[in-house]
Amino acid sequence: MIQINNLTKSYGPNKGVFDLSFQVNEGEVFGFIGPNGAGKTTTIRHLLGFIHSDSGSCSIMGMDTHDFAAKLQEDIGYLSGEIAFFDQMTGLSFLRLLSEMRGLINHDRMNELIHFWDLDVSVKIRKMSKGMKQKLGLVSAFMHHPKILILDEPTSGLDPLMQTKFVDLIHQEKSKGTTILMSSHSFEEIERTCDRAGIIKNGKLVALEDIKTLKKEQRKVFMVSLASKSDIEKINSSTLEIVKQKGLDLEITTYGDINPLIMELSKCKVVSFDLKKQSLEKIFMKYYESGDSNE
Ligand SMILES: Nc1ncnc2c1ncn2[C@@H]1O[C@H](COP(=O)(O)OP(=O)(O)OP(=O)(O)O)[C@@H](O)[C@H]1O
């Protein structure tokens, strides 16, 4: 659906994007992450046809994003990282203007989204908080049922409750088959929404990670409480990796397959069983840290 082929746009050494290639498949949610100034917005601007590459190209649905920018806008919902609004307008008049420009007659989805975000659109944009403006931007990006969503830091300015609502909205769109590319600094958001993530650093793609595989192979720590000392002895004599033991409480590590753990626990009386929350943050963080290892 989205193809980036050897894209290069240089604003100076390590500034811009350099020989960048990746693709986003139809119906996929793709996370684009990387440190400040890595080149995420520059890539996104090419996808919207706003800037010309030095070399290489981008295409969406087989159409060059620069040559067919106007045509492609019909199918793209775009949220800019720095949204420029007409400050004197109310939220509603702004959305109506955009609807008119898009030739949108049915406003059901627009109203649904206003309601979803609990956004007071009667307020003038200049009086809106940062979060309200972000919600307005999200309504305008989603309201025309786009086939493709390109979102530059979509939850910046949203409070944690609204960030969770955003995740729900992405799941809704994914179930409809929408293709989504979004940049984010929130690992948790990427983990909760994306199928794959591309990690960019100094304008170069340093990794492409399949989130499901990462999660599957991820080290998991289970907190288990057993009923008796003899149960503890059974687990101690198994091949399970015990990382911590205190009285009848254990912390047991698994890598991928959790069945050996379940098998062993089935021989014991289990009082409680919990998964210790781990995130993919550690995996992603190594790409953020400075140094030449990933360059
Ligand atoms: N028009 C421009 N003129 C000069 N330099 C630019 C221009 N646009 C971007 N850059 C530089 O290119 C680099 C990449 O910028 P970009 O905005 O793509 O980063 P980003 O990954 O989106 O960062 P952030 O996470 O901070 O939003 C930065 O060093 C930036 O200063």
Automatic annotation (TrEMBL):
<dbReference type="InterPro" id="IPR027417">
    <property type="entry name" value="P-loop_NTPase"/>
</dbReference>
<dbReference type="GO" id="GO:0005524">
    <property type="term" value="F:ATP binding"/>
</dbReference>
<keyword id="KW-0813">Transport</keyword>
<dbReference type="GO" id="GO:0016887">
    <property type="term" value="F:ATP hydrolysis activity"/>
</dbReference>
<keyword id="KW-0067">ATP-binding</keyword>
<dbReference type="Pfam" id="PF00005">
    <property type="entry name" value="ABC_tran"/>
</dbReference>
<dbReference type="InterPro" id="IPR017871">
    <property type="entry name" value="ABC_transporter-like_CS"/>
</dbReference>
<dbReference type="InterPro" id="IPR003439">
    <property type="entry name" value="ABC_transporter-like_ATP-bd"/>
</dbReference>
<comment type="similarity">
    <text>Belongs to the ABC transporter superfamily.</text>
</comment>
<feature type="domain" description="ABC transporter">
    <location>
        <begin position="2"/>
        <end position="227"/>
    </location>
</feature>
<keyword id="KW-0547">Nucleotide-binding</keyword>
<protein>
    <submittedName>
        <fullName>ABC transporter ATP-binding protein</fullName>
    </submittedName>
</protein>
<dbReference type="InterPro" id="IPR003593">
    <property type="entry name" value="AAA+_ATPase"/>
</dbReference>
